[in-house]
Records
---
Amino acid sequence: MAQPKTVLVYRHAAVTRLTHWINVLALTLLLMSGLNIFGAHPALYWGQKSTFAHPWISIGAVEKPNGEMMGVTQIGQAKFNTTGVLGYSGEVGSREPVAFPSWATVPSFRDLADSRHWHFFFAWLFVLNGLVYWLVGLGGGHIAKDLVPTKGDVAPRNVWHEIVTHARLRFPKGEAARRYNVLQKATYLGVVLILLPLMVLTGLSMSPGFNAAAPWLVDLFGGRQSARSIHFIAAWTIVAFVLLHLFMVVASGTWNNIRSMITGRYAIVPDAPTPAPGETA
Amino acid sequence: MIGSVHRRGWLQAGLASAGALVLGACDKITNNPQAIGFLQSAEGLTRRAQRLVTDRKALAREFTAADISPDFRPNGSVDPTDPEYVALKEKGFADYRLVVDGLVERPLSLSLADLRALPSRTQITRHDCVEGWSSIGKWTGARLGPLLDQAKLKPGARYIVFHCGDTLEQTLDGSGQYYESIDLIDAYHPQTILAYAMNDRPLPVPHGAPLRLRVERQLGYKHAKYVMRVEAVNDLGHLGRGKGGFWEDRGYEWYAGI
């Protein structure tokens, strides 16, 4: 029996591919400059104002009785020794008090002014890129056609089936691989319609200028310090999504996936074809 | 298996060195004035976009007495040691005079009593530090707009500069003296005041006694403390290092609306 031939299907439109990679660049630099900015006041609160004595999370350095420094991350009432990563990090011997380690921040040294320049530049790129994706995605039908789940998709039986096969890392082949499954659709929709816009809106809610223009927005998030907290949580939610996304890319065929996001072509093995007349199977 | 362990080692080393390269490149960009200047060009976009969507007179949110922070944090200078300032402070600011000059028809010299007699405004607002924290306080002060009208701006005046009594950084050329500047849109905003009272008491020294600027809708470092002189100018280039403020001279945005 002949090996079934793989066929390359056109999976990702040029706009999808371009906006995807611009997002990779922008989100990476936004995260890293954001972690540097966070270091200027490494504590988060709820509400409009800071309750300095009671942050819900804080990262800092304390001196131990023996004079040694220790990185401490506090979440609620719990305190953790995070020396080397959070609060106090760097090469052993020349460690310094800094919220996130230098390898995770842009620039690598503590610098609020410059990290803000990086952050706002790539925030604009991220926003404009997102607008292009949305306009083309809504106008061209990509979001409606490829991302909004169909009735069949959301049938409980199908959802359960997808969860089980995903948990076993068995991915659709053949015809079914031509389109996203319901878990992919829900995740991608959640990211492009909720998570990424949430980043922009909570970011804008920290702007005193924008607060005056649209006071309802910062109220929606429960105040400026709440907006800062949600901005931080949503950023880490994006990191979690990217880690899962990368894991799935590797698990379902690294090079095939990467190629499809570069050239648009995705290889699938078609379902066993019905033999054409005269062909020996 | 051994091969795959080796491969993993190579992959990790490769990723680590690629990461270091990218980080190194980012630091190089940060330290290159032209490159960081390019990134900083987003500031103009932000200012124009915010001015486009914001009414010139749109007010910053005002809060209630119950919202006032019990732990309002002072930042920057908290107790200036400049001899002139110390001398004023020792006499309870009785000799203090606010000078209003520059591109004005009628230069002024105002005592605290004169300032208290000017059209005033009281507002409970949120102070947002560039570092990320916020505190809420109640401010009472002379509205800057009417004060400027009294001095009568000359046609060339485009910016209002606030010269402060504190030296925040010791430098040889005197560029460590705190100063700030705003444009006329913010200068004439109804909530822009020169505050002499905080939370119904005379302005305390850590918060800028005897007089500080409140320019709501911008970040904390724009709210100059220890204001000694208000100068109307046409251009900011000749002041400090030419960027319009102490922190602006050290890389921060002149438009601090975000």
---
Amino acid sequence: MYFILPTCIQMNVLKNIRSLSGFIILFLVCSFLVPLVTLASATTLTVTIQSAGICGNNVKESGESCDGSDLGGASCTSQGFSSGILSCTASCTFNTNSCSTTSSGGGGGGGGRGGTVVSSTGAIFSGRAYPKSTITLLKDAQIAATTIAGADANFSISLSGLSGGNYIFSVYSKDNKGIRSSLLTFPVSVTSGTTANVGGIFIAPTIAVDKSEVRRGDNITIFGQSTPASEITISVNSDEEFFVKKLSDASGAYVLYFDTSVLEMGQHNTKSKVALNGDISSFSKVIGFAVGTKNVLTQLPQKTASKADLNGDKKVNLVDFSIAAYWYKRASPPATIDLNGDGKVDLIDFSIMAFYWTG
Amino acid sequence: MRQFLYKILFIFSLGLILPQIVFAAQISFDAKTTQTQVGKNFEVILFVNTEQENLNAFEGKVTFPNALLDLKEIRDGNTIVNFWIEKPKAQDGAIVFSGVTPGGFKGSSGLIFSAIFEAKKEGVAKFEVKDARILRNDGTGSAAVLSMIPLEVVISKEARIEIPAIQKIEDREQPELFVPEIARDESISNGKWFIVFATQDKASGVDYYEVRESRQKILTFFSRWRAAESPHVLKDQELRSYIFVKAVDKTGNERIVKLSPQNSLRWYENYENWIILIVIAVVFASGAKKILWKKRER
């Protein structure tokens, strides 16, 4: 017993053990194996202790069910549910709140339409985004689920574990260049014990320009992504509003080389919307550019942090809201937090932040 | 001639103002009754009708006659406001509120909150919204044109009509699951680590939050729950503690979420491990003693 711990300490593995389970394993190894092998002293001892995983590094390791986005191939189905979105909690265990158990019902009796009885309170969201794009669903402004759209740009997200009541849901998507769509928001009243179906969501196209300033008469490139083979209406807003229609390609991409000779010198805006099979999306974000005397290239929107991203993590969420809330009505707020530069943090700054929200 | 000119001017001004009134967002009250009796409770609900505009920030002050009414309770469980900057609360004889809905809200009957009053004296209780601001979801925070409809409730000693009872909230559900986030920013407490959190409770609304930090995994009860508001500056700036955040709704249901330490303790820094070690050692020692004792007896 007296030589057990010194032996283990000599092995210099103790410091790598962080969790209790790792510690017990080490203790048992030190208690039984080390003395036995040391007493036998016939071989050189090599003991490898795998330390417990670090929760929060997005890599599922020993002792963790999951870690961030790494679910280790698990899904709601593998956890005994029939559908839904499996996610990972902050303590690296599975979060099955968005998994649901469904059982088929109805049908029979003269070929009546089969129904689905969902045991929990939830909502199913479906619609169109961009091919293979990531869709993020916000529930009351906080990320509730993400999914990947199919090659046809269609997506479906199932959310369970809700309570009966009024929710504000929002969705946005990121295109193949990482450009984010505008936030599409819709209030949904969920009845306890039922599943609300929210279909026909049509996420507006993404939009970007290649120049922040364009020499009058030169072309400005307006581009983005939407659903494949769809009619994109691009508006260039000047004193006179110009509408140009383009067809998106098989990947949903569209591009317009707009001749600026028809525009006045000064600031202009552009936005786009999409139409497919009679469905029309809302307008995209509005992107500004100037018509002037020189060409100034610009970066893609995802490479520049939004001005409401107060902590610079490329997200506008509760952290930014909390930072602004700390400075609400306090004297001399930092310039980065006073979004409209009026010397105070008030409702206007929060409204600007709410516009740029990503969750 | 002058009268004719005035008429023309009046019609012209009406033409300018009228569309703004027609399309103005509207803040209004709703109550199940506009007549009540001294000693009875009644509920007043504050709504917003956005009139097709997408609005994302709301603030104001609901005034009421304090001489006639006692404010008993404020309910915000089903509100359209996702994050309160100032949760609706009684202040200087009025209810002040301020909050945002990221992405905006567009609808004809968005509930902001409701309040339950007890009628104290006879009279006419007038409810109004003062200093109201509602902002558009346009990235600049421009103010929406606003119209307000006040509400009057007649309080009499003996009501001639049946006063509807206040709906009791039956809330058996915990506040919704949430994921707190640890962050730091130079502008808050000199760059100290803080935790942010927010959740919803659709039935009765979240009442308060508490935070507990513990370096031990099992023996957490040695550390105290502390009342907290987001952002909450962490006591353990080395981030070596388990952090528990508790959300409690207005009927007492609790939701506790746990965050693992970002920098966990070495095994020998956790006294729980030493307790286990001592227990195992004692068990081993007593076992060995028994074996040796039996051998000696033989």
